[in-house]
Amino acid sequence: MLNTRTKLGILGALAGSLLFTGQSQAADCEPLVLGSAISLTGKYATNGVHAQNGYEFAIQKLDEAGGVKIGDKCYNFKVTYYDDESKGDRGATLAERLISQDKVQYMLGPYSSGLTKAIAPVTEKYKIPMVEAEGASRSLFNKGYKYLFAVLSTSEQYLASAVTLAAEMAEKEGKTASDVKIAIAVENDPFSLDIRAGVLEDAEKYGMQVVIDEKLPRDLSDMSAILTKVKLLKPDVLVVSGHSKGAATAVRQIGEMKISVPMVAITHCEAADVTGNFGEFANDILCSTQWAETLTYEDELFGTAANYETEFKAAYPEYAEKTVPYQVAQASAAVYVFADAFQRAGTLDKEAVRQAIAETELSTFYGDIKFSEAGNNIAKPMVLRQIQDGKYNVVAPSAFASHELNWPRK
Asked: How many whole angstroms separate alpha carbon 299 and alpha carbon 184?
């Protein structure tokens, strides 16, 4: 595994030095079209827009650096987007359209594991390389796909460290890990079901009791029935996964119903802007994240993680008063992987590009990227942030922590 605490490694430095042809040539670069069916409306629209903004920011940075040199030519990425409306069947149809009608030969992924699961058979059928940033379900990587590559950590890792944290806190209080009671409430989709599986596996390892194991309502707009059970059974840990809409519902109703649980761990906090929307209700909630601006990652294009955040906010002022969601950062990382692979392949031949992607070993502002044979990133860990007085502070794993954990949640 690559050293996640170092700057760009030898391979990354070589790629970084070759990626950029000089700013004066950027205007003369030819367009290189990528395709993406993305959720711009529907229940995943918030994160779909985040992903699109991440793609476009990376493309802007590449343009400013002079474009991507492939062989003896210079190219600027352009993306043809279609709105999948957060529907898997529409996403698959649009992927067919991009490939068959628009003649797109390279794809950026959609938002969510479910949509990626719908599109992957299409890109595989046509042997179209797809680098995706928003589909984390491990079920994507047991199908034998050869053209699907994901820059993000798989979903069973998202909240597993919360279980470990709960065990550590129990021991500090003179209890045993097996004393910990866990409540789980997740969306019935591939991503969230993987998160549930990861939490259940870790809970079993510690001998913890799962007292609630429920699916969120389909529209993700009301979890009051589940929270009523939480009040009655008094778990030590509440785990919730329902993308942005589910996160917003959870934080709002936990606050409104005055639910007191020592640890609440949720996915998609930043994307849902739970601090901006719900204020003190969000305090001390744990939020899984693929990336944080305080981590010591960097590369030749974006600089440090902190610099990425600063420059992205300057380009997209609507994020100025909020934490940049990791969905944005990983989308930019996907574009960077494509640029690096094209450069190393030295050709537009899609089989050569696919092979170059498969051989990626790249250190980036987002973290290290190296793909297994199954296509998932095996070089980057997840981290947990806790909302402390409205700020997102990294509290786990300890090697990455910038702040101490507030326990129990007030």
From this structure: 38
